[in-house]
Design brief:
About 25% of the residues are buried. Helix 3 packs across helix 4. The chain is globular and about 65 Å long. The chain has two domains: about 60 residues, no CATH class; about 160 residues, no CATH class. A three-stranded antiparallel β-sheet has the order 1-5-4, with no helix packed on it. It is mainly alpha-helical and about 250 residues long. The longest helix has about 35 residues. Mediator of sterol homeostasis involved in sterol uptake, trafficking and distribution into membranes. Its main location: endoplasmic reticulum.
Length: about 250
């Protein structure tokens, strides 16, 4: 199938294994072949005989919708066949959203309305504290996942690049945390239920990211997430024992 060049994807030829087939996870040396004069042809996977990456001709909105639906093909396209480098910024933004939500709940529980500068400073410090707590919880969750996967399948995480790729996948798949913004802005009686659904959606996305990145079955990613949640809740319990509101 011929398509026009868009300039958003790497050039056709690359080192062996630089890309992945979105259908079978097999290695591919190219996503498409350039026949010049604006004529490109999608490469066919040698393993499954299907197009290596059909998404290179899709609109980004369609790709996003498929990612929201947690389709493995969309995840492989994003993780292996594109040059997306926003995982660090996305992680910081998600942590800020989570810190703001906790800070807002903390302010709602406080009846002090004194506009004194000292009070305002204390409230600002509370936000920084919530950001730090959210960061530690996120770190403990990720550490729990990595420890479980390394213990269960050490051959999957042999090099630094394996860890970096999985970390990138987990951070990108946590984009669902951004949904707390509209949930807070349009506060409703059902907001706690919405926040619970957001949490479940993020965990499902994390599971799919692990499964796609390491080419695993469905059970092991959920096991890793379960131990990640245990470690995260352990950190929460530690903060509560210290008398901190989290």
């Amino acid at each position: 199938e011929a398509l026009s060049g868009r300039g958003a994807f790497p050039r056709a030829m690359a080192a062996l294994g630089a890309y992945r087939c979105i259908e079978c996870h097999g290695e591919a040396a190219e996503l498409y072949r350039d026949y010049r004069r604006g004529v490109l042809r999608i490469s066919i996977c040698k393993s499954c005989q299907k197009p290596v990456d059909k998404y290179i001709e899709y609109d980004p909105v369609i790709i996003l919708i498929n990612a929201i639906l947690c389709k493995a093909q969309a995840y492989r396209h994003i993780l292996f066949n594109t040059k997306i480098n926003i995982h660090g910024k996305l992680c910081i933004f998600c942590l800020l959203c989570e810190a703001y939500l906790r800070w807002l709940q903390l302010q709602d529980s406080s009846q002090n309305t004194d506009p004194d500068d000292l009070i305002r400073y204390a409230k600002e410090w509370d936000f920084y504290r919530m950001f730090g707590i959210a960061s530690l919880e996120q770190t403990s969750f990720l550490v729990g996942i990595f420890i479980t996967l390394w213990w269960m399948r050490p051959e999957m995480l042999k090099t630094k690049s394996d860890f970096v790729l999985l970390l990138k996948a987990l951070l990108l798949s946590s984009y669902g945390k951004l949904l707390v913004i509209p949930a807070v802005i349009w506060e409703h009686d059902y907001t706690p239920l919405c926040l619970a659904f957001i949490k479940v959606f993020v965990l499902i996305s994390n599971s799919q990211a692990i499964r796609v990145t390491l080419n695993l079955n469905r059970m092991l990613p959920w096991l890793a997430i379960f131990f990640g949640l245990i470690l995260e809740n352990g950190v929460v319990y530690l903060f509560q024992k210290m008398g901190w509101d989290v």
